[in-house]
Amino acid sequence: MKIRPLTLTLPLLLATQAFGAVTPGVPAFYGDPPDATHPWGVHDRNRPQPKRVEPGTYSTADKPGKPPSDAIVLFDGTAASLAKWESDPKEGPAGPTKWIVNDGALECVPKSGYIRTKEHFGDIQLHVEWAAPAKVQGDSQGRGNSGIFLMGLAEVQVLDNYNNPTYSDGFAASYYGVNPPLANALHPPGQFQSIDIIFRRPIYQDGKLVDPGYLTVFCNGVLVQDHTPLEGPGGHLRRSSARPFPEKGPLKLQDHGNPVRFRNIWYRPLPPRAVEGGTDGALTAEATRAKRKQIAAEIRTHAASLKATPNEEMLRLAESLVYENDPATSREVVRRFEAYAASVSPLAKGDLEKRKEEILNVLRALRYLGKHELVPANFAPTATLARIEKAQDWMPKKK
Asked: Which residues in 87-126 are b (16+ Cβ under 10 Å) and which e?
């Protein structure tokens, strides 16, 4: 059987395109412009492209898959990767873990204690594969029990619940003590289970909760936690309540007295959400203004590099007005459009025909800017180019 990790279908959200570049094949002055809470226009050619990530491979029952190219590997089946982990004592300094590597898996040594990563992180996409012992012993919470603790706090339960009922909020893939899984999607004991987690920590600003944080979990490709809001770290017997998490924390694995095995553990850092400085999605009005101002400034800088092609420079400057209607830039754009219209108006029909594409591009920009009130109403250059369009019979033909 194949264990299909979530990574191969998740959208890739991180962007790396350097500014100044524009998306090939996407025209300027195209979709709806930015608004009060969106710094980018619809189909915005200036919006950075997603970075390229080489996808991983699927795991099988016998062999772990290959992580995606940008994954940070925490355990790859080798004894060397055990150096990324340490003991997690309740008191005193951490030391080397007593867990062992057995046939390519990280195996819990009962009563040796929890372990944690030396590395700390915040919001992540996490992939873990675990297997309960093939020999079934115990029942309920005493059978194949461990746990995956995000930032060392919020626990996604590890438990052999194959034909083994227990309390629902302590079931395998539960947000322990808080929310049961939507389904029991486990393979039989002894087989590896594939767990994919999207973890977003709570965000507080000035002591107030602005985003509770969330857990989304897939077990063997089945959605079992659907954007579940965090209610603190969860826990045993006592109800958990919302509270701030640190910015970063370790990944912990639980010793609950069972020799549970883990393999193919890796994560991908997630970009910041809009509420913490990200620029995708709806932002606050203040953040949107700041980002639009930045985009406009970068476009103006790019326009300055196009002085060898004045028409391109003019249109690029005009494009910056879509993000910030800077008065000085607006005056310069108006001046250039007026000069352009005056330069093409006296041309003969044949000369106009040679410049058809250029003139229509400028006219399209003018109409867009006029529609969104970024050039004066009844702007003379727009009327001039529209007359040329009609006289040259360049109007789109009705079907």
From this structure: bbeeeeeeeebebebeeebbbbeeeebbbbbeeebbbbbb
Residues 6+ apart with CB under 8 A from 163: none
Q: What confidence tens digit (pLDDT) does each residue in 230-284 have?
A: 998 887 878 878 889 999 999 999 999 999 999 999 999 999 998 888 888 889 9
Cβ(320)–Cβ(299) below 8 Å: yes
Whether 55 has a pLDDT exceeding 80, the answer reads yes
Contact predicate 250/151, CB 8 Å: yes
**Of the candidates 236, 249, 240, 169, the residue with the CA atom closest to the CA atom of residue 201:** 249
Residue 396 pLDDT level (bands cut at 50, 70, 90) = confident
What distance in Å separates the CA atoms of residue 118 and residue 87, rounded to the nearest whole number? 9
Which tokens go with 28? Answer: 């300027």
What is the rounded average pLDDT of the residues 334-342? 98
The predicted model scores a pTM of 0.87
pLDDT category of residue 20 using cuts at 50, 70 and 90: low
Q: What domains are defined for the chain? A: 1-16+51-282 (2.60.120.560), 285-391 (no CATH)
* Weakest-pLDDT range from 25-29, 113-117, 215-219: 25-29
The amino acid present at 67, given as its one-letter code, is P
